[in-house]
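Two records follow; treat each independently.
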Amino acid sequence: MTTLAGQASPATLRSSPSAADDRRVVFFVFVTVFLDMIGFGIVIPLLPFYVQAMGGSAQTVGLILGSFSLTQLIATPILGRLSDRYGRRPVILLSLAGNSLAMLVFALATDLTLLPLLFASRIFAGATAGNLSACQAAVADVTEGAERARGMGRVGAGVGLGMVLGPVVASLLIPLGAWAPPLGAALLAFGDLVGVFFLMPETHRRRGASPAPSKPAGAAASDLWSVIRERRVLVVLVLYFLAFLCLTNIQTALALLAHERLGWGAVTVGRVFGLFGLVSLVVQGGLIGRMARGLGRANVLVLGAACAMGGLATIAAAGGAATLLAGVVAFAFGVGSTLPLLASLASDYAGSERQGALLGIAQSAGGLARTVGPVWAGLLFARFGAAAPFWGGTLTAAIWLAFCLGLRRGR
């Protein structure tokens, strides 16, 4: 069936062989993000302990995390634009190759106990960390409407499941030596690279009969800038920044707080991060679609911000294990119910030709937060004590909640 213009109708496109592969694409994206995030989940809970063993402080932990995010902030929009121009698959392959090499350098740094080499590994990893935005763009290529929020939830579920299993893998590898967890992460990233090379299809412009004429670089940048200046897009970018700014408190200071107050070591802290990932997995893998349909995306964003604020305040005030874990669960629910919806909104606003670029910029808004947040959290911890980063995060989450309430009123 064709339209009067002689082009295939949406119904025909949906029944075409390439459209029938949409679920397969989402599945392979899920596997890609899952394996990549196992490596992330292996390293992040252990990083504060590695830094302390090398003579660094809480501020050093923040600077290392911030250096990763700074280079990611610069690189991600560029990789997003490249994914729009050359396809999602090459960018994902480049990112995985960079991550594998960076983890090898990380393993060498832990074996030689060289703090500068540890910095170098995270800087290089950040420079090639375009995986998530390219994967989100691939999902956006093959989904639309309500299915897009569900597809982004599947990406988030891969992140959550990786964060669940990563600390478990780390606890199994750490008895072999400090070098073993990052080496395991490098091998997983390389395995992911091989899987994507052989199994991940290209998705960009799959639905079009022919690619749109390319625009000059200046015109394309102007076109993207006109989208970014839209009020609704700016709100999404601000929400990305605030959500990730709160998340950096967990990544930077949770292990240090748990060690100081409860005497927990690397294995126990890894299990707490696994709990965080499990809650995110349940929310993003099973609940987010139903919540978005039943409550509406704006209401779910408000609920997520409120839970994140309550979770951070609970962690700050926690004097025992049960209270600390309750705060972690509440915060994980809040973040898990926010990030897929923000990705869905960003891809909706971008249009098919700018999805990779705008999702890359959205990830860079998060990258800016991950650049500033760890340094700030480490400074607060060093100057004012273990609770200070989390009280600061509570204030940030209150601003996050205010923006969500405004978004709900304006719809």
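The next record belongs to a different protein.
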Amino acid sequence: MIVGKNTVIKKAIALRMKAPEKDDEDYEFRKSLYSEVNSIDKLSGLLRGKIGLIFSDTPVFELKPMIEGNKKPAAAKVGMIAPIDVAIPAGPTGMDPSQISFFHALSISTKIQKGQIEISKEFKVCTAGKKVANSEAVLLQKLNIKPFAYGIEILSVFDDGTIQGPEIFNMNPNDILAKFRDSASKMAAVSLAIGQPNQLSVPHMIVNSFKNLASIALETGLKFKQLENMSTSAPPQGGAKKDDKKADAPKKDEPKKVEKVEEEAPLDMGDMFGDF
């Protein structure tokens, strides 16, 4: 990790981009160590405010929890912008009754319970985005509450000449694979619909063609090796047993019954349509 003045870091980046020349005093030293870094000048545009550089070979989705998970509690200071809402829960404060006037000045509902001040209901002290007032900072200090926390936040990732924002490096590998599968499925569907052969559609085309060949072979009695392998490996389903066929077959001596269908009488519509 490197933390320093932005102007100094920008100067170091400019020197790193410049290839060593024979006229340089440190030519021999830099020549043995120099290697070109693609688009490293893009880092200069990110050096605004309190910025540090972290160099690591660890993937960002593994490094991010370690960096941002290390936070230090901080007290509220007068004039600072509150990053979050802060509320004091109801309950005992541990302060003696002589300081109850301080709570009354802030319009905080309190009562004396077992020789100490107790807050009757939750009281909101700080609002996110607003400055912390003097009375609010003193109250939190008296209650020994450190509502805020300071730590490092990853703003951008530089990887092989590209700058990645939070919308990219916050995704884990499972999210990336899910998006890739969804895109591949849509591409395969479009390719099959327009008949475009490619790496996504050809496997489906082969399977569909085999299904068509199998259907034709079953209808015409044609046999080929792949179909025979499938028929021998798969157990018969829905087929009738020999005994069932014999039982269902009509006997020779038994006369066949023919049902007589009576003709329906013509439907009389009367004079509905009149004479035309």
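Discussion point: Confidence is low (pLDDT under 50) at residues 238-247, 257-276. How would you locate this feature using only the token line?
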